[in-house]
Amino acid sequence: MPTETQLAEYMAEIREQVCSRCIERPPGAPPCAPHGKRCGIELHLADVVDVAHRVRSGAMDPYIERFHSDVCSHCANKTTNQCPCPLDYLLLLAIQAIDAVDERRAQRGEPAIPVS
Predict the structure, then answer these.
(1) Which of 35, 28, 19 is nearest to 86 (CA)?
(2) pLDDT: is 11 or 116 the higher one?
(3) Residue 75 is part of which domain span?
(4) 112 assigned to some structural domain
(5) Does residue 47 lie in a domain region?
(6) What CA dihedral angle connects 45, 5, 92 and 47, to 10 degrees?
(7) How far apart, in whole angstroms, are the C-alpha atoms of residue 104 and residue 113?
(8) Residues 92-101: pLDDT tens digits?
(9) How many domains does the chain have?
(10) Could you tell me if residue 113 is inside a domain?
(11) C-alpha 91: how far from its chain's center?
C-alpha cells in the first residue's frame, strides 16, 4: 500500500491530468469535498492506485471491470445521485497519470509500490 507521501504524488499528477478535465468539478476545486462534491478519486485514491498496479493491461476493459468490482462496489456514493462519478469516464486518464508517477519513481531508482 502506498505511503501518504506516495499518495500525495499520485494525487498531484491526477489533479493536473484528470481533475483538470472533469466536467463535474465545482468552482474552486480540487479538492472537491470542501465544495460539496464527493469525488471518487478523493474518496478512493489508494484503491484506484491499487487497481492500476494490479491490472497492467494494454486494454481498458480489465481496468474498468476491476475498478467497478474493487472500488465502486464499496463506494459511499453508490447509492447517491453522485454515482456514477466522473472517475467512471476519466479512468483512462487516471491510469495514465498513475503510470506517469510510476515511471518517474522508476527513473529516480525508487522501488515499485507493492500491490496489496
Answers:
(1) 19
(2) 11
(3) 4-107
(4) no
(5) yes
(6) -30
(7) 12
(8) 999 999 999 9
(9) 1
(10) no
(11) 7
